[in-house]
Amino acid sequence: MVDTQRPAGTPPIPSGTQVVLAVDDDEAVRRVAAENLRRLGFAVIEARDGSEAMRILGDPAQHVDLLFTDVRMPGPLSGPALAEAAVRQRPDLRVLLTSGNLQDVGPDAGQGRFPVLSKPYRRAQLAAAIEASLAAPPHT
Predict the structure, then answer these.
(1) Per-residue pLDDT reduced to its tens digit, 98-115
(2) For residues 27 and 3, what is the distance between their CA atoms, to the nearest angstrom?
(3) What's this model's pTM, rounded to 2 decimal places?
(4) What is the pLDDT of residue 140?
């Protein structure tokens, strides 16, 4: 059966049980990302900032497979700081950062430690980046 929700050329990714925590302070950007993730077959939890994401991750009953977070966010936790805190709390968590300005992703922003998807991106690029992140070993 062909999945009419998946764009042609989009790599197959496991779906049905994976949960993505999508974090972005820009509500419109977060909603578009969440919708794209849902169309790819993922369950999605949305958070507006790092503090809200850490509350979600702090709930042991809440399953999360992948943290998908913007690099630049207001508040005490930028995307890379959130990623570091998240993997300390959940060592098996996979992480994918995203940024509209790759200059934001320097040595202080986790460069090299976590993969980064450049904005704007197409759904097929998101699917490939998510697939690679889920297949990668944990960031321990």
Answers:
(1) 988 765 555 544 456 899
(2) 28
(3) 0.84
(4) 63
